[in-house]
Amino acid sequence: MHQQRSEPAPPAPSAVPAVPAVPAVPAVPAAEAATALATGPATVPPAAPATAPVLEPTAAPAAAAATAPAVGPAADPARILVVDDDPTVAEVVAGYLDRAGYRVDRAGDGPEALARAAGHRPDLVVLDLMLPGMDGLEVCRRLRGQGPVPVIMLTARGDEDDRVLGLEVGADDYVTKPFSPRELVLRVESVLRRTRPAPAPRPPSAAGLTADPAARRATKDGTELALTLREFDLLVFFLRHPGRAFAREELMREVWGWDFGDLSTVTVHVRRLRGKVEDDPARPRLIQTVWGVGYRFDPAGREAD
C-alpha cells in the first residue's frame, strides 16, 4: 500500500510593484491655448542690470493714467521738454506726462535740448543734471538766456551743494533719483500752476449787458454806457450774482466796501443805474425791487410781482 505524496504548494505570486501616480495636468483654458498656439512660446526677458533703480516702483501705466492729474484746457496743453541721456528714464517720464495731457518733446543731450527749445518754446523743462558733454547746469543757464522758462532738475546726486547750485542757476524744483514718475507729474503741475498766467476771466454779461472790469467798459446791445465808478461796480456785481436778492446793507459792504453808512447812497445809485440800463426805468425789469429785502438782478427781464 503506497502512501500518496502530496504535491508541494505552488509559490505565491510575487507582488506587482505599485506604479507611481502621474500628477494631474491642469486644464488649460481654451483662450490661453489659442493664444499660445498663435504667438508661440513666451520669451523670458533679460535680467535687469544690477544697478540702482532710477525710477521708484509705481503703478502700472494704465492704472496711473486713470489717476493722472488733470491739467489745463485740452485746447491748449502745456508743452514739456524732457532732457535725459538715459532713454529708459526719458521714455517713462514722457509717457506719464503724455497720459496726463501734456505735449512732450524729448532730447538726449544739451545741444539737442537747446535746438528743440529754440524751435518750439517749452512751457517747462524736465532736465537731467548729469548730461554728457554739456551738463544740465549749463543747459539751464542757456535756456534761461533765451527767455524765462520753468525748469525741474533730475539728478542722482543728493548733496545739498548740488541742489543749491541747481536752484541758483534758475531751477524751479529739484527731484533726486530714484523718483516716482507720478510724483514728478504732480510737481510739473505744481510748477506750471505757479508760473503760467491764469486765463483772464470772461467779462460778465447778461440780458444784452456786458461789463469788462479790466477795461472799465460797459455796453448795452453793443452800445457803450456812460457809467460812473460806483455805477460800473454795481452793474458788475449784479451781473455776477443774477437772480439773488441783496439787502442794501450787503450792497454797501460788497460794492462800496463800507460796513456802515447812509443806505440812501445805494438807493440813489440803483436809480441812476436803472436809468441807463432799463428800457423803461419807471417800470424796471432787470434791476428789480424786492420789497422788505432790497434789490435783485433778473436777466430774464420778467416783470416784478
Properties at a glance:
305 residues; five-stranded parallel sheet; four-stranded antiparallel sheet; 36% helix; alpha/beta
Structure, explained:
The protein has 305 residues and is α/β, with parallel strands linked by helices. It contains ten helices and twelve strands. The protein has a five-stranded parallel sheet with strand order 2-1-3-4-5, with helices on both faces. A four-stranded antiparallel sheet has the order 6-7-8-9, covered by helices on one side. Strand 6 (205-206) and strand 7 form a beta hairpin. Mean pLDDT is 78; it is low at 10-53 and 58-75.
What topology emerges from the helices and strands here?
Elements lengths: L29 H10 L21 H6 L12 E5 L3 H13 L3 E5 L2 H10 L4 E5 L7 H11 L4 E5 L4 H9 L4 E4 L4 H15 L9 E2 L2 E4 L4 E4 L2 E2 L4 H12 L4 E3 H9 L7 H14 L9 E4 L3 E4 L8
Parallel strand pairs: 1-2, 1-3, 3-4, 4-5
Antiparallel strand pairs: 6-7, 7-8, 8-9, 10-12, 11-12
Helix pairs in contact: 3-7, 4-5, 8-9, 8-10
